[in-house]
Structure formats: C-alpha cells, structure tokens
Amino acid sequence: MTVFASLVAVAFILISSSVVVTNITEQKASARESIKSELVEIEQQTQLEILAERIEEKKEEFFSDVEIEGKGAFVYDINTKETLFEKNADEALPLASIAKVMTVITAQDILPKESAITIDSRALATEGESGLLLGEVWSFKDLAELMLIVSSNDASTAIANAAGERLLQDEESQSTEENPYMLFVNQMNTKATEIGMEDAYFENSSGLDLDYETRPSAVASARDVTELLAYALLEYPSILNHSRFGSYSVVSLNGRNFQAENTNRLTDSISGLLASKTGYTVQAGGNLAVVVDVGLMRPVVIIVLGSSREGRFSDVERLYDITKQYFQSI
User: pTM to 2 decimals?
Assistant: First the structure.
C-alpha cells in the first residue's frame, strides 16, 4: 500500500469513528430528552391525580350533607362536564313550565326569529292569564322571551301552533299528524331524543297538567333538564338571555309595550345568573332551573324538581351558596 493510500485509509477510519461517536452522542442526548419528557409527563399526571383527589375530597366536604326539599336535583359544571351534586338525578319528574324551554328550542329550528305570530282564540283558551290580547301580533323572538320570563301558557300555544303550521307546509315532512299543535309537540319529543334527554316526554307545549291536574304533561329527570339547559346555552345562547333579569320590556308588532315580570324571584339575589326558568303545577310542585357563572367563564347548572312553591327558591339558593364556597376552596 502506498503512503497516500495508507493516509486515505487512516482518514476514513477517523471520519467513521467520528460519525459513530457523533451518532452515539446524539442517541444519548435523544434518550436523555425522552427520559426527561417521560418524567415531566409522570409529574404532570401525578399532579392531576393529586388535584382530582383534592377535588373529590372538597366535593365530599361541601356537598355530602346537603339537604333540600326537592325530590330531584342536579348541580353540573358545564366546562368540565363534572357532576358536583345529585339527588335522584335520574328519576323522571313532572316539569311544569320548564317544558317551555324545550318549546323555544324546538321552535328555533322551525321559525325565523322575526316570524310574525298572531295571538288567536286557540292561544287565549289555554289556562292561565298573561296579558296577551286577541289579534295582537308578535315577532317570534319577542314572544318567546316574554313566554320564558312570565311563563305564559298563551304564548307557548301560539308559538306551538305557528311552528306546527309551518311544519305542515313542509313538503318533505313524512308525518301523518294533521293537527299542527300536536305535530309540533311530536317534534319536541324528537328534539329531546336528539339532545340526549333519556327520560323525557312531552304532551303539550306549556307543561300544564292534564286531565284536571291529575296527570303531568311533561316529564324528565333533573339530569335531563341539565342536558336541556346546557344545550340551550351552547347552541342558542340568546334564547335565555333575558331570563336573568327581574323584569324586561318587550314590544308587540302592534306597538304595545309589555313589562314582563320574571317568575324567578332570585334574579337579584344570585350574582352571575346567566339563565333561569321556573315551573309550578299541582303534579310537579315547585321547580327551578338556573345557570350561574360562579367564576370567570365557569357556568354551572343547578336544577331542583319536585320542591314546594317557595321551597324551590330556598333549595336553589342553598345549592348556589355551597357551589360558590366549593369553587372558592379549590
């Protein structure tokens, strides 16, 4: 071998050795980074487990001994999808006027917001007096807001009839139901299934008891109502917007100003109220559903079903106060 060839061979060996050393160094560095990353993940997982344990301990501390009058209740963190408190949460109970939330949600998919709805004799024949006038014309949006705030049975019938008549005009509809009102009520049940309300059914748009107050017209569990309100806030955030006020002024298309007084008397005592709906009938007792922001963008649903007329308010106040204390502690 010539001197030149020998030098080339030595250079090749040195370069090869250098590459091997470099590869080994890079592999060691990569291994170190991998181990470091795994250690970070383990630490983060440990921290999450510690936090989860702490949260469970705090839930037990604040919610384990809660006593309320209501037969069913549910407290639910919308962001984390976490149940904070439940009492007979899956028992189907009469909804009374909470059914009107489903009425509005269902009608939203059928009627444009500015649809004109006339208050006719069919609507005024519904039990209950809310101050609507025969022949008065309302936009769907304003009538829906009025209905939810004052819990107007007349308004719920007018909306159901208008939406049902529109469904009848739909050439693609496969339904054999010819009564526009019942066609709409059927649609309410379809919507409940879509939302995931497993124990719900509706027989009218108002929630009024049937058969001279011997049979409820709308039934669902506290968990179902939670699904309903969470869906309403996420999909149609404006629907319940004005239900957080003690009163709200709405104007008919005829120009009449209507001062709507909220049936929920807690609007001024619950801070961060985002939405609310009351319900009361002989069969249902007192119901109240609210959504409150207990912190920065931390919406929580509080549902009480089957309480008394006054007990529903004290039940929700108690659950609200405990929920606030719970979040302040974690």
Answer: 0.83
The SS3 of residue 135 is: coil
Residues of the chain predicted below pLDDT 50: 4, 7-8, 10-15
DSSP state of 207: -
Quote the strand ranges of 98-210, DSSP E. Answer: 116-118, 137-139, 201-202
Amino acid at 117: I
**Phi-psi category of residue 196: left, alpha or beta, with phi > 0 → left and psi -120 to 50 → alpha:** left
For 240-281, write each residue's pLDDT tens digit.
Answer: 999 999 999 999 999 999 999 999 999 999 999 999 999 999
Structural domain includes residue 61: no
Helix (H, G, I), strand (E, B) or coil at 248: strand
Helix (H) or strand (E) holding 166: helix 153-169
Strand-pairing partners, residue 277, are 289
* pLDDT tens readout for residues 278-315: 999 999 999 999 999 998 789 999 999 999 999 999 99
Q: Is 136 contained in some domain?
A: no
Give the range of the structural domain holding residue 304, as residue numbers without chain letter: 70-111+184-329
Angle at 210 between CA 207 and CA 211, to 5 degrees: 170
How far apart CA 180 and CA 166 sit, in angstroms, is 8
Q: Which amino acid is at 90?
A: D
Give 1-19 pLDDT, tens digit per residue.
Answer: 555 455 445 444 444 555 5
Within-domain flag for 146: no
